């Protein structure tokens, strides 16, 4: 506690929160995105702005956990098979981008008077884009799963991997370093491999059983603690052996991508990720030195312009040449031209190892920050040009075309009823996702070949993570009436685009669902009861034509009774339960109902309270 009794950093936290509450909505209102708002808030309250906060350096190590959690969440969305399918983009396109851009920027720095060592570090450091910044833009625009979003992510992933050899390059470039590998380097490589193996084993064989045990306890806070333990534990292990923390968290996320708990993990971690990411960008904004910027304005403007143009040209050319459409190549070029957070790490290491002067590192950091600020403007400029061309009727190569998407259905509750619904839907080739809250049921469904995930349908964040925002239809197949009622409200409020189909447990539940305005409901035993009764009539020798007449009449009377009950209460319309189905007399001109005869077998009607439950 401080001297006045307030917790440490309370005043700084209040100032930061106030600045972001003002700057972020304003930036989003202007179309610049939340990242620019956080950067502007940090710059305003930082030591080079109004000076309310002394420095962002103390906050940055904690804020970097936001990048770690971001990569963990991204990993959850990529199963190992999908990641393997992306190998060509990751190791081919990504490696080409880093090499071509890095060498071109190296040449630019070298021929403007910088030493070989400084030019190498500066060129390859600026070749790295901001994973946190670019992914935030893609997520805000809803384009991370688009083809160009996936290719952009592949490039970013390779850049995160590239920081390891680049840091080794700094060590080799250190004065008095002979550049020899030696036994110590090989031992470091073996340590990294062992750490990766430990993460793989833990993620594949230990994490899912642990979450199953915790889910059975129904303690949400323990599940949250376990999710943070997995994400931060894997990141910490990688950091301990000299590998990027974000890369370690991403690997853990990929290994849990096929786990039945992926959606609840994503929903639990999302608030922490969002808050820490905002803190990260604010800390970056605090480091923008306006005095240095003004004193070297011409040099910094040339640097920002050159970096963004060179990176943009190579990004467009490489993605276009490797199969992307012109639209996708342009979007990647304006999404990834900025410098990245790993450049700060590389430049700091270069200064510590006397590879680069401190003043040069500060200039390069300013170039990185300004390139981040200008990236949303580049995206807005591309959108503006595309809109103008479209308005003039010009065939626009920058506007994406989308193939017809397969409808997605989210099944909530995967018992016998939900499983049969999924079987019918998948028989048509529809994409079906399913969630349930019973670990045993999930495990059984997975043994049968279904991909079912752990998730509570009454939580909007879990439903969003499970894909409710993209679902054309949500099938509510849960047994608990109260849970279904709350889940229907969640879908109606947060995902109005989806049709809601519900399994009703009885007639009273069906009436309640009708009042909630669901698109379709059916009592779980209605169709099976009709099938049972039809089979009984058939076994008693009733002709098929007569059975069909009875079924149509019973369905009609049931609909009429339901409409009356919605208006007058559960006991109303009981007269619709009784009566003999009129027979049809076929004439040359029409089908005429005839009067019933006493020979028809009549089952004694059910009366009283039980009739209302049928």
UniProtKB/TrEMBL annotation:
One of its GO terms (cellular component) is endomembrane system. Coiled coil: none annotated. Keywords: Antiport, Ion transport, Membrane, Potassium, Potassium transport, Transmembrane, Transmembrane helix, Transport. It is a multi-pass membrane protein. Residues 406-522 form the RCK N-terminal domain. It is found in: Endomembrane system. Residues 591-614 are annotated as: Disordered. GO terms for molecular function: antiporter activity; monoatomic cation transmembrane transporter activity. Its main location: membrane. InterPro entries: Cation/H_exchanger_TM (IPR006153), K/H_exchanger (IPR004771), Na+/solute_symporter_sf (IPR038770), NAD(P)-bd_dom_sf (IPR036291), RCK_N (IPR003148). It comes from the Bacteria. The keyword Transport applies. GO terms for biological process: potassium ion transport; proton transmembrane transport. It holds the Pfam family TrkA_N. The chain crosses the membrane at residues 6-27, 34-53, 59-78, 90-112, 118-138, 150-173, 185-207, 219-237, 273-291, 297-318, 330-351, 363-382. Belongs to the monovalent cation:proton antiporter 2 (CPA2) transporter (TC 2.A.37) family. This is Cation:proton antiporter.
């Amino acid at each position: 506690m401080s001297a006045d009794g307030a917790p440490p950093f309370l005043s700084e936290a209040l100032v930061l929160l106030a600045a972001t509450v003002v700057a972020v909505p304003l930036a989003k209102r202007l179309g610049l995105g939340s990242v620019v708002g956080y950067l502007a808030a940090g710059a305003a309250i930082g030591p080079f702005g109004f000076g309310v906060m002394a420095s962002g350096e103390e906050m940055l190590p904690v804020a970097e956990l936001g990048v770690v959690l971001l990569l963990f969440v991204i990993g959850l969305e990529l199963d190992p098979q999908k990641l393997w399918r992306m190998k060509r983009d990751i190791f081919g396109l990504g490696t080409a981008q880093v090499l071509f851009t890095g060498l071109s920027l190296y040449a630019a720095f070298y021929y403007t008077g910088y030493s070989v060592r400084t030019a190498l570090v500066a060129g390859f450091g600026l070749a790295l884009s901001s994973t946190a910044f670019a992914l935030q833009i893609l997520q805000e625009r809803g384009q991370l799963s688009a083809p160009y979003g996936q290719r952009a992510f592949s490039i970013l992933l390779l850049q995160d991997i590239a920081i390891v050899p680049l840091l080794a390059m700094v060590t080799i470039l250190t004065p008095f370093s002979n550049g020899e590998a030696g036994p110590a380097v090989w031992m470091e490589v073996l340590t990294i491999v062992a750490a990766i193996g430990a993460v793989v084993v833990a993620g594949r064989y230990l994490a899912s059983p642990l979450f199953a045990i915790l889910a059975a306890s129904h303690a949400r806070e323990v599940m949250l603690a376990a999710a943070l333990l997995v994400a931060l534990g894997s990141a910490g292990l990688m950091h301990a052996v000299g590998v990027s923390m974000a890369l370690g968290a991403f690997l853990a996320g990929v290994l849990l991508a096929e786990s039945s708990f992926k959606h609840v993990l994503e929903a639990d971690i999302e608030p922490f990720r969002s808050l820490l990411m905002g803190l990260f960008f604010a800390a970056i904004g605090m480091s923008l030195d306006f005095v240095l910027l003004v004193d070297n304005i011409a040099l910094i403007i040339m640097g920002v312009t050159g970096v963004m143009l060179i990176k943009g040209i190579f990004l467009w050319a490489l993605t276009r040449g490797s199969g992307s459409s012109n639209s996708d190549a342009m979007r990647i070029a304006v999404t990834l031209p900025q410098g990245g957070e790993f450049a700060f790490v590389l430049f700091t290491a270069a200064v510590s190892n006397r590879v680069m002067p401190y003043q040069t590192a500060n200039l390069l950091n300013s170039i990185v920050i300004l390139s981040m600020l200008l990236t949303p403007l580049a995206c807005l400029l591309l959108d503006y040009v595309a809109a103008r061309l479209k308005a003039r009727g010009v065939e626009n190569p920058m506007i994406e075309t989308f193939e017809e998407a397969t409808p997605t259905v989210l099944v909530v509750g995967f018992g016998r009823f939900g499983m049969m619904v999924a079987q019918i839907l998948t028989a048509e080739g529809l994409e079906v996702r399913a969630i349930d809250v019973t670990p045993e049921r999930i495990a059984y469904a997975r043994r049968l070949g279904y991909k079912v995930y752990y998730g509570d349908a009454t939580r909007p964040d879990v439903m969003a993570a499970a894909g409710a925002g993209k679902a054309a239809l949500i099938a509510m197949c849960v047994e608990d009436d109260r849970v279904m009622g709350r889940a229907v409200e969640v879908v109606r409020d947060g995902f109005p685009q989806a049709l809601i189909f519900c399994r009703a447990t009885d007639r009273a539940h069906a009436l309640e669902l009708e009042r909630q305005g669901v698109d379709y409901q059916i009592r779980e035993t209605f169709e099976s009861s009709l099938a049972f009764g039809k089979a009984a009539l058939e076994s008693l020798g009733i002709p098929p034509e007569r059975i069909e007449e009875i079924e149509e009449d019973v369905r009609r009377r049931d609909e009429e009774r339901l409409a009356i009950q919605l208006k007058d209460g559960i006991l109303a319309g009981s007269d619709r339960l009784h009566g003999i189905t009129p027979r049809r007399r076929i004439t040359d001109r029409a089908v005429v109902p005839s009067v019933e005869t006493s020979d028809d077998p009549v089952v004694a009607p059910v009366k009283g309270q039980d009739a209302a439950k049928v």
